[in-house]
Amino acid sequence: MEILVTGGTGFIGRHLIGKLKEEGHEITVYAIDPLEMENIRVIIGDIRDDVSLEEAFKKVQPELVFHLAAIVSYSAPKELMYSVNVEGTKNVVDKCLKYNAKIIFTSSVSVIGRFKGIANEETPCRPFTTYGKTKLEAEKILLSAYEENGLPITVIRPAPAYGEGSPQYKVLIPLIAKGKLPIIGSGETLTHQIYVGNLIDALLLLAHEKRAEGEIFIVADEETITLKELYLFILDYLGIKREVKHIPVFLAKMSVFISGIKAKLTGKRPKISKEFLETILAHRHYDISKIKSIGYKPKYTLKEGMARTIEWCKTEGLI
User: Fold this and answer.
1) Which of 161, 164, 250, 281 has the fewest CB atoms within 10 Å, counting from its CB?
2) CB 313 within 8 A of CB 170
3) CA atoms of 171 and 313, how far apart (whole Å)
4) Is 191 helix (H, G, I), strand (E, B) or coil?
5) Is residue 185 part of a domain?
6) HSE-up (13 A, CA, CB side) for residue 163
7) Which of 100, 93, 32, 33 shows the shortest CA–CA distance to 67?
8) What percent of the chain has pLDDT over 90?
9) How many CB atoms sit inside 10 A of residue 67's CB?
10) Is 22 domain-assigned?
11) 62 inside domain
12) What pLDDT is stored for residue 4 in this prediction?
C-alpha cells in the first residue's frame, strides 16, 4: 500500500514509520525536517505550502495518509499554530479529496479540556490551550469532509504519549532522577497517558478497520496513575531513595505570572506558561471502551512502557 505520513520525522512519526516498514508498505514522509531511514522516501515540504503538497500527492498517489504534522506548544504564537494545525490540515484534507486517499488524523485529548470524572468521545469539548483549540477546529474540517464529500476519515485522540524518543520524558526523567523537578501541589492529580507502542497499534488498527470510518476514538493506556505515583515509580525503578519535593500551587502560579511579565518586557517566550501549568494540574482519566470495542487492546502496561522509556534514557546517556 502507498502510504504518506505527514510530520513523520517527529516522535510518534518515527515509531509509526518503523512499524509500517516492518509490514512492507511503500512509505513516503512529507515533513519540514529530513529523515535518515533506509528505504523511506522523504519529501521536504510544509503542509501550508499548497504547491509543494500538491507535488507530493501527485508523485506518491497515496491510498492512505497518516496526518501527524502539527505544532505542539504551550507558548508558540497563536497565529502560527492556527496556520499549521488548522489551515495546514485543511490543505491535507483537500488533497486527500482530490486524490481519493483515506486519512487518519492524529488529534489530541487536549480538545476536551477540563472535565470531572471520566471523559469519553461524547464529553463536551472545552479546550483551554491554543493547541487543543486548533486541534478541535481541525477535527471539524475532517468530519465535514466525511459528511459532505464522503471522504474516508478517522480521528484519533491520543492521551499524552511517552516512550523511547519522547521529547518530554527525555527531560523529565533525568530531572526527577536528580531531584530537580518538584511536584506542583499534592501530586494526587490523576493522569492518563499512552505508551507510544500502544498508540502505534491503535493507529494501524484504525487504518484497516472499516468500522472506524467517520468516527472519533480516544486512545490511552489501560491504567491511570497519580503524578506522585509516577515520580515514585521512576525513582524506585532507578533504585533512588529520595523524598519527592513539592511546591504549593500558588507559588507555581506566581512564577508563571512573573515569567509572563518578563516575556512581555523582553519579547521572548515565557519559560513557564499559564497553559503549561494548567495542563500539568489538569485531571486526566479517559474511557477507551469505544476503541476497545473494535479490537484495541493495549499490549504494554503503563509500568512496562515507562520502564522501556527509562531504559531508553539510560542508553542515551541521559541518566
Assistant:
1) 250
2) yes
3) 9
4) strand
5) no
6) 22
7) 93
8) 84
9) 25
10) yes
11) yes
12) 98
Q: How far apart are CA 7 and CA 84, in angstroms?
A: 11
Confidence at 33, pLDDT banded by 50, 70, 90: confident
Cα-Cα end-to-end distance for the chain: 40
DSSP state for residue 110 in the 8-state scheme: G
Provide the pairing of β-strand 2-6 with 64-67.
parallel
Tell me, what's the pLDDT at 310?
Answer: 98
Looking at residue 285, its amino acid is: H
Residues present in the chain in total: 319
**Domain housing 122:** 2-166+192-222+285-301
- DSSP-assigned states of every residue in 144-190: HHHHHH---EEEEEEPPEESTT-TTHHHHHHHHHTT--PEESSS--E
Asked if residue 278 has pLDDT above 90, the reply is no
Cα separation of 146 and 111, whole Å? 19
- What pLDDT, on the 0 to 100 scale, is given for residue 46? 97
Task: Please tell me the total count of domains within the chain.
Answer: 1
Q: What is the pLDDT of residue 74?
A: 86
User: What is residue 255's predicted lDDT score, i.e. its pLDDT?
Assistant: 87
Distance CA 228, CA 241 (A): 14
Residue 2 belongs to what H/E stretch? strand 2-6
Could you tell me which of 109, 11, 26, 7 has the C-alpha nearest to residue 67? 7
Q: What is the mean pLDDT of the chain?
A: 94
pLDDT at 11 over 80: yes
Q: 84 pLDDT exceeds 90?
A: yes
Residue 200 sits in a domain of what CATH number? 3.40.50.720
51-55, 161-165, 265-269: range with lowest mean pLDDT? 265-269
Question: Edge-to-edge, what's the strand order for the sheet holding 26-31?
Answer: 41-44, 26-31, 2-6, 64-67, 102-106, 153-158, 215-219
DSSP 8-state secondary structure symbol assigned to residue 111: G
For 65, the grid coordinates are 495518509
